[in-house]
Amino acid sequence: MRRRTKLIPWQVAGRVTERQDDTDEVVRTTGWVFNNETGGALTLEEFVETGDNEVPVYLQRFGLESEHDETRTLVEIGCGIGRMTCAFTRRFGIVYACDLDGGFLERCRQAVARYGIVSRLRTIEVADGRSLAVPDGRADVVFSYITLQHCDRDDALALLREAVRVARPGGRIALNFRTWSGLDPVLVPVGGLVRALFRVPAIGPWLSRRRLATRLAWQANRLDPHQAVGPIRHRLTDVAIWRNPARTSAPWGVGEARAEHFEGINKAHWWLVARVIEDDLNAAAEAPGGAGVPNRGSSSERRGPSTEP
Description:
By secondary structure, the protein is α/β, with parallel strands linked by helices.
């Protein structure tokens, strides 16, 4: 597989984590662990605690929680080393934790073993950066936070389609994106230059330990709601676009989507929260006389190989 530039910062960071002795060391020394308030003093326990505090807020605010969560399945796109995954495993019966690099997934499993319920965890390596080795219609909830903005634009849109695919009819998706802000005309091109430096073996591992460098390298795409939602709008109902209250303009190009606001959302971020409905093409193909519907390929062809242990 050709190594795409926008995947390299993640892959370099993953290799660095594999060389470190434990997850506490990963949290203390690698720049891709984001927490400006505590910085290098942050321990794994404190890192996971930030996720513990955020998970119930997002689940409640977005209407994703249920009294039957222990029997439900959640797919997390972009689990990292398990900051939010630990809380998800304590709540949901099965959690598919998906990320680009096996090093992240190994550390995620270690974190969940310490602070979550590891028997509920399934790890999925997203080796191509755009497809999930999860069966069709498996998830009650698909969740992604501060991940899709770090992907190539086409990969982010592919993962959005994958989120819809793996959600069951009636399941919910809650996906975080980043839109354009005032500094982006500078940040995005500078990020491209920094990503190029990650390709240099003598420099990449050093950069992966620098917070500013990794943040710049991960400035990979910006998507507005109409660009993300428009192509899949027919698969969604009860659509809401969540933003910071400072974003007062109504979202356009997203049909009858509701505009919702929450002060806890970064001003440059927005969330797509929606319920997935059955694909009309699939339903027609399965119905009597539906053989004439074009074959779009099997789910195994679309999602690639699984690395689930």
